Amino acid sequence: MNEKFLWRAEMACRAAWPAETELEIAGWSARRSGGTIRRVNSLNPLPAATELDDAVIDRAEALYTGHGQAPLVRLLSFAGAASADRLAGRGYRSEGGTTTLCADLANLAPVAGDGTTLWDSPDRRWLAARNRIAVSDPAVFGRMLGLIRAPKQFAGIGVDGEIRSIAYAVIVDGFLVLESVATDENFRGRGLARQAVGSLLQWAAAKGVDKAVLQVVTDNVPARELYRSLRFDTGLFEYFYMRRLES
């Protein structure tokens, strides 16, 4: 894939998970929402970004520490090698390796299953299921969903009247971006996540979208096997975070 396509996928993924505030610092975006979700509380490169220098790092550190947060930088595998070295020299260490995958939605096969519900916006039951399954930062997550301006859809898979698997998707710049795929621990291995994701893929394909992307923890083998079965078999790029250690 060429770099332009990679940046399109990267920026689409960011638009599907917007931060409450973003401050541009010399071609980098300092995203901040509070809470513990790293994607919306880290310094991220923009397409025109150059390698980090000490002045940019100093400004980002002042911003985050001023809000009582540890400075955190998100780096992409196709950009930022020198930035990683500079950050390491300043006491940062890497964490959170994640892989961006892409699927072709042409000739998409239907995914069978009962109990699927789709919403244009998340209702109380969907949010309750997400907060029960994923737990982290429910208030920040709820506000983030309200910031999404692109077409979106939320899927829930019910078992015996209770939502047990969820996902949502956003159409941005010709991509379907999949997010928040999660299943109750006691209901995993039943194909519920496959059903949730499949319903969103079919929704997007019906709207003429031909590419889908998602980001998954690199060493999450069960999730990657699920996505491979749904034709997410093209790896685009990886990213990781660098966090400043306490001095």
Question: What's a quick, concise take on this entry?
Answer:
By secondary structure, the protein is an alpha+beta fold.
Q: Key features?
A:
247 residues, alpha+beta, three-stranded antiparallel sheet, 7 helices, 11 strands
Strand order of the largest sheet: 4-11-5-10-9-8-7-6
The share of residues in extended strands comes to 25-35%
SSE order in H/E notation?
A: HEEEHEHEEHHEEEHEHE
**Secondary-structure content class:** alpha+beta
Main pleated-sheet profile? 8 strands, mixed
Distance between the termini: 40 Å
Extended strand count: 11
What is the residue-averaged pLDDT? Answer: 95
**Unreliable spans:** none
Mind explaining what this structure looks like?
The structure is a single chain. The protein has 247 residues and is of the alpha+beta class. Helix content is 32%, strand content 33%. The chain contains seven helices and eleven strands. The strands form two sheets. It has an eight-stranded mixed β-sheet with strand order 4-11-5-10-9-8-7-6, sandwiched between helices. The longest helix has 15 residues, at 192-206.
